[in-house]
Design goal:
single chain, about 230 residues, alpha+beta, Lipocalin, eight-stranded antiparallel barrel, 3 helices, globular
Length: about 230
Amino acid sequence: MCTIRCCSFYCSHDAAMLKIISFIICFNCVFAYFTLSGKCPENVTLQEEFKLPDFFGKWYQSYHYSSDGQQQNNCSTLELMTRPSGFYLNQSRVDRGLFHRYSIGKLDINLRMEDAARLELMFAFKNAPRRLKTRRYPFHILATNYNYYATIYTCQYSPLIDKHFIYVWILSRNPILNDVSKELAIKPLQKIGVDSSKLVKDDQDKCVPKYYEDVPVEPTTFRFPVPI
């Protein structure tokens, strides 16, 4: 009997310790990810009279900014697509120069013209726990002329530590963004408190990866699917 009770005690103790360790790891990840103090920028002016049909097609990520300093991807592209069930965005990239990966999210379109640039991306994962099956993230268009450049950003806030995370895409219709378009693209960054000197130029080398993924994976630019 003592052996059974002792076993039960140690098993429960081990389970509790595992939960504590998992919480500590998660908490540390939150601190590493959410690095900017306070809430997300408020009352940000977005692209006026945004026209989604003109935004369709392939975009190359020329520059990016990640407030947590992540530098995992190169040769990144975004492409809007149509499917029978709606409009989707395919985020394709090469991770660490080795793995081709992509994430496909469904676009939630705002029907009010004044909020047309305030899009949301919804990712669905069939095998995830119920709370994590559907995940929604902001995807806001700061500026675009549709033919040359686009500036997009997302922001996530953690009430747990009162900090937020920002990711910025500076996109180009061509693999190389011309200087004039770049200057126009970075103008809106002051609206969200991002220093344009901190933009990182995308590496367009090694765009033929060694390995390919046959199924979509989680997007690296949206890391926490539930409020933390």
